[in-house]
Predict the structure.
Amino acid sequence: MSTAPPVVLLRGVGRRFGDYDAITDLDLRIDAGEQVAVLGASGAGKSTLLALLNGSLRATSGVVEVFGANLGSIPPSRLAATQRRIGTVSQRLDLVEQVRVLHNVNAGRLGVWSTARSLGALAWPRPDRVATSALERVGLSWAVHQQTSRLSGGERQRVAIARVLVQDPEMVLADEPVSSLDPANAADILDLLSTLGRDATTIVSLHQPELAKRHFDRVLGLRKGRLLFDLPVAEMPDRALDELYALG
């Protein structure tokens, strides 16, 4: 284990929604630069875990530390500063379909731009070096002025990733980014996300074990809100997957 401070440290974390335990007694450490896949069936707690890590959801019990900050007790200004170090690709993508691709990419910088610059970017969007570089990196340099709704599902996923890239985040979270894509597009998107590990810690939730084996170094298995296993991908046995996805 690295002697450097962890990027993520969870101690005894639980999250309840009414009488339902989405996450139960979770301990977890993730170090800088790790590329981690989170596996589990629907309802296993994958989305809840990522929401706890980006501070959009607070734990009911335990401690969630990200970049050394306790997300459950820090003041709002420090929470916002911590969240600016995290890029999130949500399952819904959260793109505005009726505007140009450039609008959606520049939305990744609204939290750090001044109000005047943010309003100017919305009214008169101009591609700058940062936005252009992000779109080139995801293979969409040709789409800068395209209306987002005209893009395919895989292309919209790439726009969401480009929006994260302009933030220059230290950690990237992606919630089931390939659930609606065909195998070829899924592989392309995960190739792209896994390359971010050179610059950022990357944590991606998935349903497909074969994709986790192909694109990530470490795999977490969640079942009914509990951590069933935490293994290097090369050590993940088939019996662990059988238990992870067992019915009942």
Remarks:
- Residues 153-165 form the longest helix (13 residues).
- Strands lie at 8-17, 20-30, 35-39, 61-66, 69-70, 86-89, 171-175, 201-206, 218-223, 226-232.
- The CA atoms of residues 150 and 211 lie 28 Å apart.
- Residues 1-85+207-248 form a domain with the Rossmann fold fold (CATH 3.40.50.300).
